[in-house]
């Protein structure tokens, strides 16, 4: 019964794990060798995750039992340290004089061992290999496990006994599921660094997935204890460090290498803990380098790659208690960006594959490439330009107002370039992302290439208003009829904000700047002329500057309604809302970001649309607010019918509530022509107060005069097209496209790049409290520097009626 009793005790030890002092270790494999016929030894080989040891051996020495007593100690007593009594030497076979109770007890325990074995395998997530042999115990290094082969079936003990009987297999052997055991992986169980933290001591045998994981753990260990280390040896398969104070007597050292048996880095030599002390805490730590910091802030950068260096610096200080230099945090963020978004050069090679799957999964998406052969190498090209427009944006633009705004912005990162953007305006006044392109620079050639792609692949609508700045490349491209954006196909207009900025760069006068901006915003030609006269009076040269510009392109009074009241480009809003931080990413990550930001942007707008339509709105909030403001003014207007059939009316406005010198203006409304002499109806496509006064007087529905582009159904149709998810990379087909390489001539110089954008007064935020002159009543200066104080008081051009 010695073998059965031994296995019985083994099963009980597994049943009561508190009897085994293995700490937090995982049982990786078990050996059950039999030393000889007399004694039985159980040896448990445990790979522990924390000290004091990574190997624990448990032995059980047995001796013969005295049958004369007829009593046997309880199993619990045997396990807790009592001697186990077995028959004398040579009597290992089952005896007939054993009590039935013992037999029944042993049969039950043997039958339950299969369940225990299975539970251990589940708990360890590794295999448990129990070799069946009666040979002497052999001790071997755990790295030799892979070289040991066990038979599929347990061998039979052929040792002859005195009475000629043979050892019968224990019931336990019949219960083991050998198929399950043999189906487990061939590799030995491996430990994981995730079960170790820097508050614990390192120990020999601790394993790590990679050299980087090993270095990370050792650095965290040193930082936690305020100890400094120096590297003694570093190779791809080897890493050794020691205490910085080793010459002062501290013997702390560590050596680790990659084991061929399991392919992991393992600490092979370790002497610790430290015996040295650093009496003063410094503001920095040598092990807190940019590589470790990059790993710590990686999740933060992945969630928001626009996180500032100051914010990351505070995160590191809160976590480690050290004040790290700004440059190291900046370098750590750069490394974290590489870990999250990939290498710059590899990103170019990945771009064709990603854009190919984008086109396959999102029908209607347009991609246009421009490359040049790479030095005669077959199948390799150099990147020059790429244009992309998502199918959902192309389809949704059909329901937006016929307005397209274009602009360019600098790219940051390893390679220089420009990001060209085309946007529109949806029914509620929000930016509608339309198309993007990456080019080498802004020029006539690059803008012509972009506008041609926009006309061919995005929209063929006639009469579109193209709003841009006064870039020479854009002006030249638009004037070229072959590009497709000259009249009558499109109308080119300037962004008033850029025009005024250019004007201010020349004259550097805030008063003139504000007068020029107000002149461009006026709806009625008479008011525009009034502001221009005031500009001429203050500085005659300023009027000469504007005479070089086409009045239709920068003023609302002479726009003829193409702008829909939109005087500026909203590229800044697009960059902040849709492309925030995209310009600093590798090229594939940048394109991916535009995709996923547009997906999120469309879904946000859909939720807004559903809420407004559920509330019963027929028109957008933007249109309703303008309509209500005009409606409030209309109540004081006086309407005179001049021709009922032709629907011609005269409207006299009411006196202004606060300025008695304002009001009593005459406006002419022609409903059949859809015009009002105030020009606001033509500009916005929303009835002005004069039209609303006529509608109330004639008892007709004034909502019928609101442009169709402001209806909720048009708003919903703009965002109805859907984006489709991109499948896992394993399912991406390889595109029929040569290997793409970056343009090395566009590589940015080493070092932190200076800001590419030269900030001007357009970037300066106006103060919350605006100074108004007491003489001329103009905002922007005071009495002391008023330009009119020597010539006496002048009429205030900014206080005229609107």
How does this model look, in words?
The protein is an alpha+beta fold. It is 35% helix and 15% strand. The chain has 24 helices and 21 strands. The strands form five sheets. Strands 10, 11, 12, 13, 14, 15, 16 and 21 form an eight-stranded mixed sheet that branches. A five-stranded antiparallel sheet has the order 5-9-8-7-6. Strand 13 and strand 14 form a beta hairpin. Helix 15 (510-521) runs antiparallel to helix 16. It is elongated.
Q: Quaternary status of these chains?
A: single chain
Strand content: 5-15%
The end-to-end distance, rounded to whole angstroms, is 110 Å
The gross shape turns out to be: elongated
Point out poorly predicted stretches. Answer: 5-176, 180-194, 755-760, 763-769, 792-802
Radius of gyration: 42 Å
* Overall average pLDDT: 76
Query: Helix segment count?
Result: 24
Total number of strands: 21
Structural class: alpha+beta
Estimated helix fraction: 25-40%
Biggest sheet details: 8 strands, mixed
Keywords:
about 800 residues; 24 helices; about 35% helix; about 15% strand
Give the gist of this structure.
By secondary structure, the protein is α+β, with helices and mostly antiparallel strands. It has 24 helices and 21 strands.
Task: Describe the protein's topology.
Layout: H1 2-15, E1 26-31, E2 43-47, E3 63-64, H2 75-79, E4 85-86, H3 100-124, H4 171-175, H5 178-182, E5 207-208, H6 211-224, E6 229-235, E7 238-243, E8 253-258, E9 265-271, H7 290-303, H8 309-320, H9 326-341, H10 344-361, E10 366-373, E11 380-389, H11 391-396, E12 403-410, E13 418-425, E14 431-439, H12 444-457, E15 464-468, H13 472-479, E16 490-494, H14 496-507, H15 510-521, H16 525-538, H17 540-547, H18 551-554, H19 571-577, H20 587-614, H21 621-634, E17 638-643, E18 648-652, E19 666-670, E20 675-676, H22 680-684, H23 689-698, H24 712-718, E21 739-741
Parallel strand pairs: 3-4, 11-21, 12-15, 15-16
Antiparallel strand pairs: 1-2, 5-9, 6-7, 7-8, 8-9, 10-11, 11-14, 12-13, 13-14, 17-18, 18-19, 19-20
Helix pairs in contact: 1-3, 7-9, 8-9, 10-20, 12-13, 14-15, 15-16, 16-17, 21-23
């Amino acid at each position: 019964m010695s073998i059965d009793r031994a296995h019985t005790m083994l099963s009980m030890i597994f049943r009561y794990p508190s009897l085994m002092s293995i700490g937090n270790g995982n049982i990786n494999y078990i050996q059950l060798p039999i030393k000889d016929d007399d004694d039985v030894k159980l040896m448990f080989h445990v790979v522990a995750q924390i000290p004091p040891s990574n190997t624990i051996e448990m032995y059980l020495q047995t001796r013969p039992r005295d049958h004369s007593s007829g009593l046997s100690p309880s199993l619990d007593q045997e396990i807790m340290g009592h001697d186990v009594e077995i028959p004398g030497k040579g009597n290992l076979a089952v005896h007939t004089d054993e009590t039935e109770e013992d037999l029944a007890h042993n049969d039950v325990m043997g039958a339950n061992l299969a369940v225990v074995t299975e539970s251990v395998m589940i708990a360890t997530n590794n295999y448990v290999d129990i070799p069946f042999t009666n040979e002497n115990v052999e001790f071997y290094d755990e790295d030799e496990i892979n070289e040991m082969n066990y038979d599929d079936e347990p061998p039979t003990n052929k040792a002859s006994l005195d009475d000629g009987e043979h050892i019968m297999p224990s019931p336990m052997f019949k219960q083991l599921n050998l198929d399950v055991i043999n189906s487990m992986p061939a590799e030995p169980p491996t430990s994981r660094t995730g079960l170790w933290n820097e508050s614990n001591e390192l120990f020999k045998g601790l394993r790590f997935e990679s050299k980087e994981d090993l270095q990370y753990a050792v650095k965290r260990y040193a930082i936690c204890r305020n100890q400094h280390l120096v590297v003694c040896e570093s190779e791809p398969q080897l890493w050794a460090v020691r205490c910085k104070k080793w010459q002062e007597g501290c013997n702390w050292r560590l050596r680790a290498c990659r084991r061929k048996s399991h392919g992991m880095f393992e600490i092979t030599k370790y002497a610790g803990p430290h015996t040295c002390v650093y009496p003063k805490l410094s503001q920095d730590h040598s092990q807190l380098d940019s590589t470790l910091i990059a790993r710590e802030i990686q999740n933060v950068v992945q969630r928001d790659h626009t996180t500032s260096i100051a914010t990351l610096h505070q995160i590191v200080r809160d976590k480690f208690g050290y004040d790290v230099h700004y440059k190291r945090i900046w370098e750590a963020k750069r490394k974290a960006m590489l870990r999250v978004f990939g290498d710059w050069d590899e990103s170019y090679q990945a771009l064709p594959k990603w854009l190919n799957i984008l086109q396959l999964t999102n029908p209607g998406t347009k991609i246009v490439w421009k490359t040049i052969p790479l030095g005669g190498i077959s199948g390799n090209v150099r990147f020059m330009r790429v244009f992309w427009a998502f199918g959902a944006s192309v389809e949704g633009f059909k329901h937006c107002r016929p307005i397209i705004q274009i602009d360019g912005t600098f790219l940051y990162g390893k390679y220089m370039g420009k990001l060209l953007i085309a946007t529109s305006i949806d029914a509620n006044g929000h930016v509608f992302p339309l198309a993007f392109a990456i080019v080498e620079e802004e020029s006539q050639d690059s803008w012509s290439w972009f506008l041609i792609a926009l006309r061919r692949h995005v929209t063929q609508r006639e009469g579109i208003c193209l709003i841009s700045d006064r870039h020479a490349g854009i002006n030249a491209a638009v004037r070229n009829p072959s590009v497709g954006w000259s009249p009558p196909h499109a109308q080119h207009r300037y962004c008033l904000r850029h025009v005024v900025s250019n004007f201010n760069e020349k004259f550097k006068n805030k008063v003139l700047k504000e007068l020029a901006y107000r002149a461009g915003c006026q709806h009625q030609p008479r008011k525009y002329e009034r502001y221009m006269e005031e500009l001429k009076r203050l500085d005659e040269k300023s009027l000469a500057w504007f005479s070089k510009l086409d009045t239709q392109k920068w003023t609302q009074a002479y726009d003829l309604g193409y702008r829909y009241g939109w005087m500026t480009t909203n590229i800044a809003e697009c960059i902040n809302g849709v492309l925030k931080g995209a310009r600093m990413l590798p090229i594939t990550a940048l394109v991916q970001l535009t995709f996923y930001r547009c997906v999120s942007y469309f879904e946000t707008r859909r939720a807004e649309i559903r809420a407004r339509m559920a509330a019963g709105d027929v028109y957008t909030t933007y249109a309703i607010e303008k309509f209500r403001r005009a409606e409030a003014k209309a109540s004081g207007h006086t309407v005179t019918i001049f021709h009922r059939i032709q629907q011609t009316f005269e409207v006299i406005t009411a006196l202004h509530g606060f300025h008695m010198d304002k009001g009593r203006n005459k406006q002419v409304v022609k409903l059949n022509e859809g015009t009002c002499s105030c020009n606001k109806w033509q500009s916005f496509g929303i009835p002005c107060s004069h039209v609303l006064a006529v509608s109330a007087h004639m008892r007709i529905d004034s909502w019928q005069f609101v442009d169709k582009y402001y209806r909720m159904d048009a708003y919903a149709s703009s965002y109805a097209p859907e984006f489709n998810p991109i499948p896992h990379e394993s399912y991406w087909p390889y595109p029929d496209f040569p290997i793409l390489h970056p343009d090395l001539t566009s590589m940015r110089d080493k070092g932190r790049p200076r800001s590419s954008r030269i900030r001007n007064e357009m970037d300066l935020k106006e103060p919350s409290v605006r100074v108004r002159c007491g003489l001329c009543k103009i905002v922007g200066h005071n009495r002391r520097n008023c330009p009119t104080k020597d010539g006496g008081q002048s009429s205030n051009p900014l206080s005229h009626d609107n």
